[in-house]
Amino acid sequence: MKDIDAATRTELEAAAFRRLLEHLRERTDVQNIDLMNLAGFCRNCLSNWLKDAADAKGVALSKDESREYVYGMSYEEWKERHQKEASPAQMKSFEESKPGH
């Protein structure tokens, strides 16, 4: 990647990010708590990072808008359709590995 110009690198990174979002939208069976426990981030983290980037650039993007972009629908709709209650084992794992963000 070091020989790729900055504009092309940004395009490749953006394409990879869009692919990640597409993958997460398809994998509604993977709960956010599972992502947090295994990887230390979840869909909400991605939406927060997107909003942080927009804020840094002075681009108006609300928390709800960034979540809708990441989830492919409103957060409330996603929770109604796909979110399950966390099991005691999931919660225990989360408490043990709780990321600092």
TrEMBL record:
Record domain SMc04008-like: where: 30-95
InterPro entries: SMc04008-like_domain, SMc04008-like_sf
Domain of life: Bacteria
Any Pfam family matching the protein: DUF1244
Region (Disordered): 81-101
Recorded coiled-coil stretches: none
Protein name (database record): SMc04008-like domain-containing protein
Organism from which the protein derives: Microvirga guangxiensis
